[in-house]
Fold each of these.
Amino acid sequence: MTWTDQARNGRLLIVDDAMENIQILNHVLGGEHEVLFAMNGEKALELAHQHQPDLILLDAVMPGMDGYEVCAALRASSDVRDIPIIFVTALTTPEDETRALEAGAVDFITKPFNVAVVRARVRTHLTLKRQSDAMREMSLTDALTGVANRRSFNEAIQNEWRRCARSGTPLSVIMIDIDHFKLYNDAYGHQAGDACLKQVASTMLQCGGRSPDLLARYGGEEFVILLPQVDAPGAATVAERILASVRDLAIPHRMSSAGDTVTVSLGVATLMPDQGGAPETLVRCADDALYRAKNDGRNRFCVEGCDQV
């Protein structure tokens, strides 16, 4: 089995202070899965945040930070809280198992373990995680365009606001509206309108270009782009690129007063989260800039300066 196949079958993090135990589990699971390991709680947390494993196999009794503390720390952190955790431990009492499950574990395996049982439980919990991830992805994706939906954006801007506040970096938002889209639907029909939305979304998706950037459908013909660690000039450059890319699609729109083809209006805003304010302030500023762009004739972008408080 290749490394790619192993990664596809799931990335496991084994946490145990005894190398012998790690080697045994790696022998049992390493042929089918990609395996990482840590010999203490601090290293386990570091690897979990860095590599985002699909499943963690965790010993309960370790010097320093024990397994229960590791489990609680993982559950308290938004980016790793949903990783399933199986305790693999020499502890055998019902109280130990109850404590592990109450800490957030999904399963509890006692040593010495049966190889077939360990493999079966790992496969089961990986399957459940894949199903859960797929359902979450559906809940955060716009069904028509395939980009993120408003719920996904609302979650992302909260997370990025905190991240940018910690790093002292800017956060930018671009609000985008397809010009005279209701008139487009009236003239060409809703099927053509849906096709137009998909084309425009696909084109805008190429204009951010970095993995942290997020394009979301905000509602109807309105979209929003979240640009972490991008300052106002950088966000304006992205807006210019979107404006030109949508024009280049040359989708006919005979009912538009902004041009003969489909165009967009954009509002750009930037804040420094470490200087105060709130995500809602940033969105409102971008929306105000969008309103100005539409009021000034559409088919353009405006940049809004906004107060931090």
Note: Strands lie at 11-15, 34-38, 55-58, 85-89, 107-110, 171-178, 214-219, 222-228, 264-271, 301-304.
Amino acid sequence: MIKQIIVGFVLLASTFTTVNGQTTQIIAHRGFWKTENNAQNSIMALQKAAKENFFGSELDIHITKDDVLVVYHDHDVNGILIETANYSAIKNTILKNGETLPTLKEYLIEGKKYPHLKLILEVKSHQDLNRENKAVSEIMKLVNELKLEQQVEYISFSQNICNEVKKQNPEALVSYLNGDLSPKEVKEKGWDGIDYNYKIFQKNPTWIKEANDLGLITNTWTVNQEEIMEEMINQKIQYISTDEPLVLKSKLNKM
């Protein structure tokens, strides 16, 4: 009972209600990495996001040629293309904070320590659709093994990956990143949300409301300027992914 109360308090601390009644929640983009001696997509960035009680922490996932899942943003590591390389070719890569390039298993094991923190898994597009399908399969296998189904959500620029997520687990939540489909089109495809760059929403100012009305998840990225944060909040966006989560937290506290 005490544990439930603590978890509930933590979730409350990461969720803010604007004057119009809409809740907006903070997603730390690639973790909370803008701290001293830290790095994007590092274990430390994950830990910092959990410590600050943000709603969620986003991470990027690739699969190597020999089927090892790694957490890294770019498609190549020091000029080595991840999806065509064996894990042994990149496993000793050192991040800016001195950590070794994490595997997804290492990352999720750490993330499981913070059940209040939603883990937003971006499955990166790959050159081969079969490799995308394999990545989804291996990710979901690992998520199931660690019993993290309720703590993770999926996002991707790849329509194939979004389809594969729903095919392999219809209950899993997946949002589309690319910004080229309307909320109605995303709903018709059976996906769960739109996670678009804020410029897409500025060009299509009715899309957030349309998506909310359709029961879709609405998220925007990567919002680092206060005026754009406020613009998105006023449109009743559900989530904001940002490299400046403390700035967003302060903004929400003032609204």
Note: The longest strand covers residues 56-63.
